[in-house]
């Protein structure tokens, strides 16, 4: 195993925790003294930096949410002097007012180091040719990976998004070995290649893809890996935390969250209480060394679980599971959190039905009742009622196993459920709560 | 013996269990001038399968498929039964003795005799046994 920064990446867990505590303590004292925003928050919350006496005390600190960034647009929360700022990124603002993130030289340095470790852990390094097909500009993806790939000594092709045929030409001519982009864009590149008579597997040297910035599934990873003959790694980050920062390692069994950079908590989004390792909840992140725009206990809205057990790769930093959804999409059915994305993942693994579905929730008496409507694939149609009932049972069992909630399944005709352009609305909740 | 002359193409259509679906199917067949000779609906909670013997199965398939229905062909056989007590028993006993399973069946009263439509798990064997025991099967050309 090759690590970019072995001292840090392989540090025993106990030492990592000591280091995290020191960093947290420093951060809290600094912000209590120098940030109006955090000072007021801590006072209102009745917590003083002296109350932080061990790592778990992070839970005593108040949360930060996205609207805090919007309400303080553009830079009211910044703690660095304006002349210390060396870059700005701005979110697209698709769900409201945009948010602005500023970076000092050290902030960029930490971001780049984080990705240098991440890319190395995916097997990318000197001698690799990395096509960065994330958007450059205000979006953090392009420049983030650009600097990370340069740091490890790879050759970078700053292709950005679009002009797909040209991307394929470059991939062939420059002997590209790794690509960074959204999973859907890579699928599009694959389809374009087919039309051009190019086989990614046979006609290019592509070996690895670093994919993220949108939800995707393990099924999609398998499909991409098989069709293109490559390994596909998941990447995580959001602009509030700096940008893309963390990836799977070669084990592809969770995203390593570097402990010197991020302190990760998983909480029940309803109660705010911590959930045990392995259980799903909302990820709350403290970025331990941010200078320009400090982030304490940021509620990401992303649902995942955390694993502190040792990774086969040897890295000691905890791993988070593939995101299973967003808090905003969460349904609570008989007390259990259910995400439409979990239903989608389950259905993608069942060939007899399509991935299109609708969830209808009702309250029958005192009980929540969830109905999942799925479309039968024409190839799976049998005129024997029992065969179709078997499919319905199979879907029901699969969903029960995945969600821990019993659901009713309704088999619909192909094409009969609503189609969506843009963001799908797959839930009808008729409960009067 | 050529058993194919006795295997009849039944058309099967998946239908959600809601008002208007059967009317849509029947109306489409009417538009195409297709006659329904025998017909049944098997229903489960939420959906059903409409099964029909029609005089122009290919045309029915094309039309319903184009309308977005899930359609398939199934091979069935049509047995003439003596329209007297014990008529059904005679047929069922022949298949039972031969170890042939009836997956489903429906009957209609034909011009000359009662007709039993059978979907069985071994079509060829069923045809042979019924004919060997003196039974009468309708030929595919009679539909």
From TrEMBL, chain A:
Which InterPro entries would you find in this protein's record? AMP-bd_C_sf, AMP-dep_Lig_C, AMP-dep_synth/lig_dom, ANL_N_sf, PA_CoA_ligase
* Residues annotated as domain AMP-dependent synthetase/ligase: 74-285
The lineage's top-level taxon is: Archaea
Q: Is Ligase there in the keyword field?
A: yes
Domain AMP-dependent ligase C-terminal, first and last residues per copy: 335-431
Q: Could you tell me one molecular function GO term of this UniProt entry?
A: nucleotide binding
Q: What pathway or pathways are given for this protein in its record?
A: Aromatic compound metabolism
How is the quaternary structure described?
A: Monomer.
Record-given protein name: Phenylacetate--CoA ligase
What is the species listed in this Swiss-Prot or TrEMBL entry?
Answer: Methanogenium organophilum
TrEMBL record, chain B:
Q: Which Gene3D superfamilies match?
A: VC0802-like (3.30.2130.10)
Q: Which PANTHER family does this one have?
A: ACETOLACTATE SYNTHASE, SMALL SUBUNIT
The entry's protein name is ACT domain-containing protein
Record's PROSITE patterns? ACT (PS51671)
The record's listing under InterPro entries reads: ACT-like_dom_sf, ACT_dom, ACT_dom_pair
Give the superkingdom in one word.
Answer: Archaea
Ranges where the ACT domain occurs: 10-79
């Amino acid at each position: 195993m090759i690590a970019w920064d072995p001292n840090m990446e392989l540090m025993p867990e106990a030492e990592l925790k000591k280091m995290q505590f020191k960093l947290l303590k420093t951060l809290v004292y600094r912000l209590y003294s120098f940030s109006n925003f955090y000072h007021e928050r801590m006072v209102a919350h009745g917590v003083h930096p002296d109350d932080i006496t061990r790592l778990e005390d992070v839970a005593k600190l108040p949360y930060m949410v996205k609207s805090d960034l919007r309400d303080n647009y553009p830079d009211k929360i910044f703690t660095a002097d304006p002349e210390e700022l060396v870059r700005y990124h701005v979110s697209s603002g698709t769900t409201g007012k945009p948010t602005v993130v500023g970076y000092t030289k050290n902030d960029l340095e930490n971001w780049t180091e984080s990705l240098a470790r991440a890319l190395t852990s995916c097997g990318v390094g000197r001698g690799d040719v990395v096509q960065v097909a994330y958007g450059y500009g205000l979006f953090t993806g392009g420049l983030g990976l650009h600097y990370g790939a340069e740091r490890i000594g790879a050759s970078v092709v700053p292709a950005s998004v679009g002009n797909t045929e040209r991307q394929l030409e470059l991939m062939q001519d420059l002997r590209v070995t790794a690509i960074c982009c959204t999973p859907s864009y890579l699928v599009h590149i694959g389809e374009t290649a087919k039309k051009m008579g190019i086989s990614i597997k046979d006609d290019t040297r592509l070996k690895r893809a670093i994919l993220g910035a949108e939800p995707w599934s393990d099924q999609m990873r398998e499909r991409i890996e098989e069709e293109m003959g490559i390994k596909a790694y998941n990447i995580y980050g959001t602009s509030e935390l700096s940008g893309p920062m963390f990836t799977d390692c070669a084990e592809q069994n969770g995203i390593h969250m570097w402990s010197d950079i991020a302190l990760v908590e998983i909480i029940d989004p309803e109660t705010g209480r911590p959930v045990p390792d392995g259980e799903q909840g909302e990820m709350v992140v403290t970025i331990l060394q941010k200078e320009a725009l400090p982030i304490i206990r940021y509620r990401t809205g992303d649902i995942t679980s955390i694993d502190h057990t040792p990774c086969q790769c040897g890295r000691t930093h905890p791993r988070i599971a593939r995101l299973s959804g967003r808090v905003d999409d969460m349904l609570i059915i008989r007390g259990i959190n259910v995400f439409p994305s979990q239903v989608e993942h389950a259905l993608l693994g069942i060939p007899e039905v399509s991935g299109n579905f609708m969830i209808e929730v009702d309250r029958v008496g005192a009980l929540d009742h969830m109905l999942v409507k799925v479309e039968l694939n024409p190839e799976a149609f049998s005129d024997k009622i029992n065969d179709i009932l078997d499919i319905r049972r199979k879907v029901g069992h699969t969903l029960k196993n995945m969600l821990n909630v019993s659901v009713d399944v309704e088999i619909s005709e192909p094409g009969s459920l609503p189609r969506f352009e843009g963001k799908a609305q797959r839930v009808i909740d008729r409960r009067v709560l | 013996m050529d058993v194919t002359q006795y295997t009849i193409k039944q058309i099967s259509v998946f239908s959600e269990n809601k008002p208007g679906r059967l009317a849509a199917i029947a109306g489409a067949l009417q538009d195409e001038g297709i006659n329904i000779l025998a017909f049944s609906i098997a229903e489960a909670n939420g959906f059903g399968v409409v099964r029909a013997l029609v005089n122009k199965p290919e045309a029915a398939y094309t039309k319903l498929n184009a309308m977005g229905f899930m359609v398939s062909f199934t091979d069935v056989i049509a047995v003439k039964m003596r329209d007297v007590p014990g008529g059904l028993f005679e047929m069922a006993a022949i298949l039972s003795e031969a170890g042939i399973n009836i997956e489903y069946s429906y009957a209609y009263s034909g011009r000359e005799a009662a007709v039993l439509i059978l979907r069985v798990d071994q079509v060829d064997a069923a045809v042979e046994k019924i004919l060997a025991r003196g039974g009468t099967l309708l030929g595919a050309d009679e539909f």
